[in-house]
Design brief:
Strand order of the largest sheet: 2-3-4-1-5
Radius of gyration: 21 Å
Oligomer: single chain
Strand content: 5-15%
Structural class: alpha/beta
Number of strands: 7
């Protein structure tokens, strides 16, 4: 299987949300919330966007404190942190401010991306620290997580009012599944088997890729598109809704 990022309908929604953020009228409205069930491609999309645009990307931890978060942000810009909180905060403002200015001069996007942000919205200290950073250098902050982010951020009215964009990742469409298989796959897949894969995956990209790997194990022995009959008796994937394996029946 090819290790290639595939633009799907959720990617389009993500980019549209960021465009809304960039066109914001009030400069302080710097937050974008990206949520949805695990497996719809939020993290992979955010990582792709970060790599494409050289953006700071950090993964929140359950025990995160502001100083830990700031140190990880400095690591993304290859800066050795100082010893005191005040100096580390100053380093973050300086380093990210410079990066933001360069990106603006080159007409490139810039933002801080925080994955697993459910760990952040439960902490007033973390949220206020991110707000301080965004206020001081007008850097957008993208919070990536599950459905609890949207409700969790409401605990902080001064921050919720600054969430300019909200993007909810949704189940893959059939066209998304087809594109994922065509771009990532190394074998051709018959239409009937593609439909079975899509239905069994229940809209989750992870399950589509799991099923594609099973199909490829059979398909690499063939010189044509893999059919349902070719997969007869083979385990395709485990359905997330039931936990049960889907066995192909030709």
């Amino acid at each position: 299987m090819k290790n290639t990022f595939v633009r799907l309908s959720n990617t389009t929604a993500f980019l549209a949300g960021f465009e809304i953020l960039e066109r914001r009228g009030a400069s302080e409205n710097c937050f974008m919330v990206v949520d949805g069930a695990p497996g719809y491609g939020k993290t992979s999309t955010a990582q792709w966007f970060a790599i494409e645009n050289d953006l700071p990307f950090v993964r929140a931890k359950r025990e995160w404190r502001p100083i830990w978060m700031l140190r990880e942000l400095l690591e993304t810009v290859q800066t050795v942190p100082a010893h005191s909180y005040a100096k580390i905060f100053g380093q973050v403002i300086e380093a990210l401010g410079k990066r933001a200015a360069i990106a603006a001069a080159e007409r490139r996007p810039f933002a801080i991306i925080v994955d697993e942000a459910d760990h952040v919205v439960g902490s007033a200290a973390l949220m206020e620290t991110l707000r301080d950073i965004s206020d001081m250098i007008e850097v957008p902050v993208l919070l990536i997580g599950m459905g609890r982010i949207k409700s969790g951020i409401k605990r902080f009215p001064q921050i919720a009012s600054r969430a300019e964009a909200h993007v909810e990742f949704r189940p893959l469409t059939f066209d998304d599944t087809r594109r994922l298989v065509e771009v990532r796959g190394e074998v051709a897949v018959d239409e009937g088997l593609l439909k079975l894969l899509h239905d069994s995956a229940e809209g989750f990209a992870r399950e589509v890729l799991t099923g594609l790997a099973a199909i490829e194990r059979v398909g690499k022995r063939l010189d044509r598109a893999v059919t349902v009959d070719d997969m007869d008796g083979q385990a395709l994937l485990a359905k997330r809704s039931t936990g049960h394996a889907v066995t192909v029946r030709g």
